[in-house]
Amino acid sequence: MPKxxxxxxxxxxxxxxxxxxxxxxxxxxxENAVDMARxxxxxxxDIEHLLDIIAEPGRVVSVPHGHExxxxxxxxxxxxxxxxxxxxxxxxxxRQASVLSYERGLAADTGSIGHTDYSFKxxxxxxxxxxxxxxxxxxxxxxPLFYGSQPNMGQYFQPDGPFPNPVDLMPAGKIKEAQAxxxxxxxxxxxxxxxxxxxxxxxxxxxxxxxxxxxxxxAEFYATLEAxxxxxxxxxxxxxxxxxxxxxVLGMHGEIAFDGQQLAGLFPHDQVKLAESVGADIFGxxxxxxxxxSFPWNLAKALTMITETVKRADIPVHPNVGMGVCGIxxxxxxxxxxxSRVSKALTLIGKADGL
Length: 355
Known about the structure:
- It is built from 11 helices and 9 strands.
- 43% of the residues lie in helices and 11% in strands.
- Helix 1 (19-37) packs across helix 10 (295-312), helix 7 (175-203) packs parallel to helix 8 and helix 10 (295-312) runs parallel beside helix 11 (336-348).
- The protein has a single domain (4-348), classed as Alpha-Beta Barrel (TIM Barrel).
- The model has no long low-confidence stretch (mean pLDDT 95).
- The chain has a 5-stranded parallel sheet with strand order 3-4-5-6-9. A two-stranded antiparallel ribbon has the order 1-2.
- It is of the alpha/beta class.
């Protein structure tokens, strides 16, 4: 084994580290997760296993036969036709051709489509167009096809939306007014998501993905949970994914609760229990990457949180393995050496159900 291992930093920079340095980074990463989320650290055997995965000489690593996981995505099926600014290939083909290429050329387990903006608010205005696109593509695909979008409650605040902006209210000391604005926006967001979800279900949608939930904080997570509950009651056979935006729920409101559980500050092992309670079929935790820390540090931190989440979950857990989350460096075109190591670690050590 070489004296140093080629690895990366959280921003993607290539660095060489010794085995002892990597082991130390792994220990510090798991300790950070313990300190933040108040969960058990990775045991020594898992640390050594993770060290072996990071130190593997190949650029791409993989799991043994029989340990492969299913993959879900958030619009990745449209990557060929997507713009390069969004990590796509920018090929001049339709979204239908992109999805079919993704399914048939890359042997995708599932497929998905979403509006270009990938937020619910603009979807409502062009819902008929999105329904038609989904319907046409679903007739040609074999793999399960999800429709995905972000709650993105920020679009409901001024100047883009009708409600006062908490970012303007809070610095002025108008805390109650900021909370009220978030509650009003959350109610409208919930209504829109339920309306869109019901229309997709009536058209024959196979699965619905609430992607990047909680990006605007705890009121947005509340709206997502309530929308998921209402949709599951209305359409019990339509699969629902709740994928998170951050490792803990931001307390932009600070006091909002769901079924008596305060949402601000919840980490994935608690988020998943709420997702279960409203009928979600898959939960996607997202663990933030610190770009100033090493890839081993970030992966150990993410793995610690994912391991505890899987232990407590009664539904499948599909960790978000993309740019800037779950150990993947913050790069538009994510490096395969990191992606494959994260995938292997989450599979063999974290016991994830999918990616």
